[in-house]
Specification:
Blueprint: H1 3-14, H2 23-37, H3 51-62, H4 68-85
Helix pairs in contact: 1-4, 2-3, 2-4
Length: 87
């Protein structure tokens, strides 16, 4: 299976993560997803009164040095870990 196909499959599986998934894990997935699909962070950091968007931006910025392929691989690995932990 091609990496992109596997990534898209796990992106769908990520939608079925249990509600108990921590916000920290969700932010890691968000950052990896954005890096895999968009590439380097290309927006300015949201203001201090928009905390949710600011945390998401920080998560993306933290992984911006990864290649898109590496971000896809890391995303797949993280989704697998979270799904296994939920069982």
């Amino acid at each position: 299976m091609a990496l992109k196909d596997e990534f898209e499959e796990h992106a769908e599986k990520a939608k079925t993560l249990p509600p108990a998934t921590t916000d920290a894990d969700k932010l890691i997935l968000y950052g990896l997803y954005k890096q895999a699909t968009v590439g380097k962070c290309n927006t300015s950091r949201p203001g201090m009164f928009n905390l949710k968007e600011r945390y998401k931006w920080d998560a993306w910025k933290a992984v911006e040095e990864k290649t898109q392929e590496t971000a896809m691989e890391d995303y797949i690995t993280k989704v697998k870990q979270l799904l296994e932990a939920a069982q």
